[in-house]
Design goal:
The chain is mainly beta. The chain has one domain (2-56). It is built from one helix and four strands, in the order E-E-E-E-H. The protein has one helix spanning 48-56, and strands spanning 2-8, 11-24, 30-34, 39-42. The chain has a four-stranded antiparallel sheet with strand order 1-2-3-4, with helices on one face. Strand 2 and strand 3 form a beta hairpin. The chain starts with a strand and ends in an 8-residue tail after the last helix.
Length: 64
């Protein structure tokens, strides 16, 4: 499991958690399920930072 959070002045304003489903294709691309139900495909050799960026891109910002 991986969790990414954005904090402003120590207060969380957004977070996303994903779980490795254990599924991968023949190229080694792994499937992750986000806490919002969306799916991310990521190659582990690309590293955790790129996975975190993909996760953050799934957060929809609410404009006030």
């Amino acid at each position: 499991m991986i969790t990414v959070a954005i904090l402003v002045n120590g207060q969380p304003i957004a977070a996303r958690t994903a779980v490795n489903t254990g599924k991968s294709d023949y190229k080694g691309v792994t499937e992750y399920k986000n806490d919002d139900g969306s799916t991310i495909y990521h190659h582990p050799k690309d590293g955790a930072v790129k996975l975190a960026i993909k996760m953050l891109k799934t957060i929809k910002e609410v404009k006030k």
